[in-house]
Amino acid sequence: MSFVDAVKLCFTKYADFEGRAKRPEFWWFVLFCAVGALVLEVVGSYVSWAFSLATLIPSLAVGARRLHDVNKSGWLQLLGLIPILGWIYLIYVCAQPGDAADNKYGAPPAN
After folding, report:
1. pTM, two decimal places
2. What value does the CA radius of gyration of the chain take, rounded to a whole number of Å?
3. Gap between the Cα atoms of 36 and 28, Å rounded
């Protein structure tokens, strides 16, 4: 999956918390959000803040779908509220390969 395809897919599934997302979809969207916020910070902090707010729901949605791919609940994202240890654990879990077989969150993503 390419960078552009991943970003398009995440915005297509803007608030879709169902299903599963492969690693490239998740990590390309994380990169898009981080780079976008940093670049827009040069323009102005309010512009960067507005961008981050606009991408909050799709970020949570793709995060939930990524956790579903490794057979974990999307609510596990709340561990991100725990500084450092929560972040490290979430990065570790999101970096794991997804289940190749069906799990309780559905079939593996086709793309």
Report:
1. 0.91
2. 14
3. 12
Rounded to 5°, the CA angle 28-4-81 comes to 30
Q: Torsions phi, psi of 106, nearest 5?
A: 120, -170
Residue-wise pLDDT tens digits, 43-73: 998 999 999 999 999 999 999 999 999 999 9
Q: Burial, 105: exposed, middle or buried (Cβ in 10 Å; 0-12, 13-18, 19+)? A: buried
Domain ranges, residue 83: 3-95
If you search the block for the tokens 């902090």, which residue do you land on? 45
Placement of tokens 């879990």 in the chain: 93
**Does residue 103 belong to any structural domain of this protein?**
no
- N residues, the chain: 111
Whether 107 maps to a domain, the answer reads no
The verdict on residue 31 lying in a domain is: yes
Domain count, the chain: 1
CB atoms within 10 A of CB 70: 18
